[in-house]
Every structure is written in structure tokens, then in C-alpha cells.
Design a protein that fits this description.
The complex is a heterodimer of chains A (201) and B (293).
Chain A lengths: L4 H21 L5 H24 L8 H21 L4 H20 L6 H26 L8 H21 L7 H25 L1
Chain B lengths: L1 H16 L5 H16 L8 H25 L1 H6 L15 H22 L1 H22 L6 H21 L4 H24 L1 H6 L5 H5 L1 H26 L3 H23 L3 H26 L1
Helix pairs in contact in B: 2-3, 2-7, 2-13, 3-5, 3-6, 5-6, 6-7, 7-8, 8-11, 8-13, 11-12, 12-13
The chains are: A mainly alpha (201), B mainly alpha (293).
Chain lengths: 201, 293
């Protein structure tokens, strides 16, 4: 499907916002969260630029599933590191193993539903972490209320990830046209939620 | 009536001359010059200097581009991509193009020398390497001519820094190296895409001389070196940690595409790297400028 000018503008704004987040938005954090957030927003930035340059065809590459796992995993790990100190090591281990599992099952031709199950588990846990953790800690008063926007961003990127993943497995929830039509806007809205949530939360 | 026709004539001339300057390429090189100047932490809002730098660099770069087109008009006519250029399609006379190139170059270099002798010398070196060494001497003889084209392309950023600093320092040279190593990423992907055109015109290129494998490896290595040089230069300038992080992320994107073109080459990755390399350089220059502002 051909990308429209509006799609390109939305992707460019997404890339600019992700750049801001990498350069300015995460200053002041400790070393590990900075590394984790730099990875997640960096992947978002480069992915946005590649989509802007190459169009939707780039989503057909099999590596997209692996790359798109990095964003939620590193973002979730950064959040856990900052706000759930007792789970730091165990979550980091989960993130590494989860990423390796998806990489291996997607690189080798595995029989049965194992690749899909692993993808659903890893994305599910990371997605729920990004969705729930910011909302819970903002309700508890540990952060400002606007930090819950990070959770909403997590939900949005989770929806985007699910739509794309099911599309790639050949069992799309919505048609390819609809998914691609809403994708740039969804990506921008997600990024706005993350940037505003981190800035004012 | 005669005034109107003169204005009309002038408009049509400008319309013909403008493509001869390759505005987007000239603009990108001008952006590197401005970034080089601002990297020197000089008083960046000295409007006369900014205007002088922009004017002199634009004229010198545009002048050398026009002279290149004048010299290459015969091979441009043989290549599908360039045969519609005003120089090769006969829309502008050879003498007119030569005169235009010389006038732009002389005014550009003269203006640069008048501003600062060392700055003028670097601007002149860029023009000399581009027109005489690259186009006239080496382009039709060896695929390695791109090194000299790269050196000339690296001169605007060095010139900008020299104007701001008053001397040549290691940071200026590293910035220039960043551009020098970035240029093969740009030009070699281009020569792969238009390999047939270059073959038709008998212009030796890396793909035709050494094959696609070596060309892709060269692109990958030069991308690594370009990214490394830009990060080192950014550190040397004293770029804030956050901006260095962002430069690192953008460099990682460049490296990822360079790896992809080496191990999983395709027309799409080739095009992606070609475009991303331009975005990368523009973004790196913007980071240097934003950092100072």
C-alpha cells in the first residue's frame, strides 16, 4: 500500500519526538534506565525514519517482529528498574531470555505454534508491565498523575504490536489496509503519550 | 515591453541555471559548512559573518558544481539519469555554462578570501579538488576518484570551523573525516543503482571495477568510520551527553543498514541506505547547530 504525505508527516513528527526523548527527555535518570530508554526510543526513532524513507513495504521484512520486540522489552525493563527495585534482576533476565527466544524462534523454522506462543507471552508480559506499572504508581501517588500516560502509550503500542504480529502470522484481526492506514497515527499517539508522560509525570 | 521581455528572459535563464547548481546537494554541503562554523563556539549570531559564510560557500559550491557539469556534459549525455540536464540536452550553450561556473566560483572564493585568508584557502582547496582533481583528472580514469570527490565534499565543514576558530584543529579534521567517510556511503549506493548508466558512459566505478561484494564491504566500512568520526568529533566539540546519545542512536541505524547491505543486499536496502545516509548527515549537522544555540 502506498504511503500518503500525511503518513510521512506523522512519521516524521514521531521521529522528532523520539529524538527529543533520547536527547533530553530521559536526562537525570540513573545509568541503567537511560540505557534501556535510549534503546527503546532509539529503535522507535530509527524505525520511524525507515518507514518514512522506505514506506510500508519495510514492514514485510521478517526482522520486524524481532526488532519490534526490543521497544516494549527495553521500555518495560527501564520502568521496572526505576519503580520496582526488588524485581530488577529477575525482569532483566526475563527480558534477555524473552528477546533471545523470539530471535531464535523467528530465525529458525520452528514447527507448530511455539513461535506464536513465545511471542504472545513475551509481548504480553512486557505490554502489561508498560500498561499497568505507570498507572498503578501514579494512582498510589509515587509519581504525578500524568505519568499514567506512559501506561496509555504502552496500551497503544501493544495494540499496534498485536495488529502487526497477527497480520504477519497470516491471521489478521483487521485488514492490512486498515492496519496500515491507522499505523502512523497510532505510532505518533503512542510516542506523544510516552514523551508527555515522562516529561510531566 | 522590452523591459518585460528582458525580465522574462532573465526568469527563463534562472530556470535553466538553477538545476546546474544541484540545489539539494549544495544545500546539504552548505549546512555542513554552517555546522562547522557553529561547532567552533564562536559568536554564532554575528549576522554579517553568517551571511558571508553562507553566500561565499553557496557560490563556491554552486560554481564548482556548474563547472563539473560543463566538463562532464559529454558523459552526462550518454547516461539516462543525466541526459536531460540543460548542459547535455543543449538548452544552454557550453560557453554560457563555463562562464556561469567561473563567475560563481571566482565571486565565491574571492568573497571567502576577503573574509579570512585561511578560510578562503580551504574553500579554494575544495573547489580545486572537486573540479580539477576529481572531475577533470581522475573521474574517467579510476574508480578511486571518489576519494578526491570526498575530500572536496569535506572541505565546507572544515572551512566553516576554520572561519569560526581561525585555525585548523583536530576537531575540524575529524568532522571533515566524518563527511569524507560518509560520502562513499552516498555515492557508492548511487553508483550501484545506476551501474548501467556509468558503464554506458565508460566511467569507472567501484561496482564495475571491483564488483558488488567489494563495493558493499566498502560502504559498510566507510559507514562505520563515518559514524565513529562524527561521534568522536561530537565528543571533542563538547556536545551534551544527551545529544551524543542521539548521535549514537542515529549512527547505530546507519551501521545496521550497512550490515544489512553487506549480508542481505537488495535494491530496497540499497535505496534505504542511500536516503538514510543523507538524513543521518543532515541530522548530525542539526545536532551540532542545536547544541550551540
Amino acid at each position: 500500500m502506498k504511503m500518503t504525505s500525511l503518513d510521512r508527516i506523522l512519521l516524521l513528527i514521531t521521529a522528532i519526538l523520539a529524538s527529543y526523548q533520547v536527547a533530553v527527555g530521559i536526562d537525570g535518570f540513573t545509568a541503567f534506565p537511560i540505557i534501556a530508554y535510549t534503546i527503546s526510543f532509539g529503535v522507535l526513532l530509527v524505525a520511524g525514519l525507515l518507514l518514512f524513507i522506505l514506506g510500508f513495504d519495510v514492514l514485510d521484512s521478517p526482522i520486524v517482529v524481532i526488532i519490534s520486540t526490543i521497544i516494549p522489552l527495553s521500555l518495560a525493563t527501564g520502568l521496572v528498574w526505576q519503580h520496582l527495585a526488588s524485581f530488577r534482576t529477575s525482569y532483566l533476565v526475563f527480558a534477555i531470555i524473552g528477546f533471545l527466544a523470539i530471535g531464535i524462534t523467528r530465525s529458525l523454522s520452528m514447527p507448530g505454534k511455539l513461535p506464536t506462543i513465545i511471542l504472545a507471552i513475551v509481548h504480553g508480559i512486557a505490554g502489561m508491565t508498560i500498561f499497568l506499572l505507570p498507572i498503578i504508581i501514579s494512582i498510589q501517588g509515587q509519581t504525578k498523575p500524568l505519568f499514567s500516560l506512559v501506561g496509555i502509550g504502552g496500551a497503544l503500542i501493544g495494540i499496534g504490536g498485536l495488529l502487526l504480529s497477527f497480520l504477519k502470522t497470516g491471521r489478521p484481526i483487521l485488514s492490512r489496509e486498515i492496519i496500515l492506514r491507522v499505523f502512523p497515527g497510532l505510532l505518533l499517539l503512542t510516542t506523544i503519550c510516552f514523551v508527555v508522560g515522562f516529561k510531566f509525570g | 515591453m522590452s523591459i518585460q521581455s528582458s525580465i522574462q528572459n532573465l526568469k527563463s535563464k534562472i530556470k535553466l541555471y538553477w538545476p546546474l547548481t544541484k540545489a539539494s546537494q549544495t544545500g546539504l554541503l552548505l549546512a555542513t559548512g554552517l555546522a562547522g562554523y557553529m561547532s567552533a563556539r564562536c559568536p554564532v549570531f554575528s549576522m554579517p559573518t553568517i551571511l558571508g559564510l553562507s553566500g561565499s560557500l553557496f557560490l563556491a559550491i554552486a560554481g564548482s558544481t556548474v563547472l563539473n557539469m560543463w566538463w562532464d556534459r559529454d558523459i552526462d549525455a550518454k547516461m539516462g539519469r543525466t541526459q536531460k540536464r540543460p548542459t547535455s540536452s543543449g538548452q544552454v550553450s557550453e560557453r554560457e555554462v563555463l562562464l556561469l561556473g567561473l563567475i560563481l566560483s571566482i565571486i565565491g572564493v574571492g568573497w571567502a578570501v576577503a573574509m579570512d585568508a585561511l578560510y578562503g584557502l580551504v574553500v579554494f582547496a575544495g573547489l580545486f579538488f572537486d573540479v580539477v582533481v576529481y572531475s577533470m583528472w581522475l573521474k574517467r580514469r579510476t574508480a578511486w576518484s571518489i576519494v578526491w570527490g570526498g575530500i572536496s565534499g569535506a572541505m565546507p565543514i572544515l572551512a566553516g570551523r576554520v572561519l569560526g576558530l581561525g585555525s585548523i584543529d583536530w576537531i575540524g579534521l575529524t568532522l571533515a573525516l566524518g563527511v569524507l567517510f560518509w560520502i562513499p556511503t552516498h555515492t557508492l549506493t548511487f553508483s550501484m543503482k545506476f551501474a548501467k548508466d556509468y558503464a554506458d558512459a565508460c566511467v569507472p566505478t567501484f561496482p564495475s571495477t571491483y564488483g558488488l561484494g567489494v563495493t558493499r564491504a566498502t560502504i559498510a566500512i566507510s559507514s562505520v568510520l563515518a559514524a565513529l568520526a562524527m561521534v568522536v568529533a561530537g565528543y571533542g566539540i563538547g556536545m551534551a551527553w544527551g545529544f551524543l546519545r542521539l548521535l549514537g542512536v542515529l549512527s547505530a541505524g546507519l551501521l545496521m543498514l550497512a550490515v544489512a547491505i553487506t549480508f542481505k543486499p537488495s535494491e530496497r536496502v540499497n535505496f534505504g541506505l542511500f536516503k538514510y545516509a543523507s538524513v543521518y548527515m543532515l541530522a548530525a549537522m542539526i545536532l551540532v547547530v542545536i547544541e550551540v544555540i
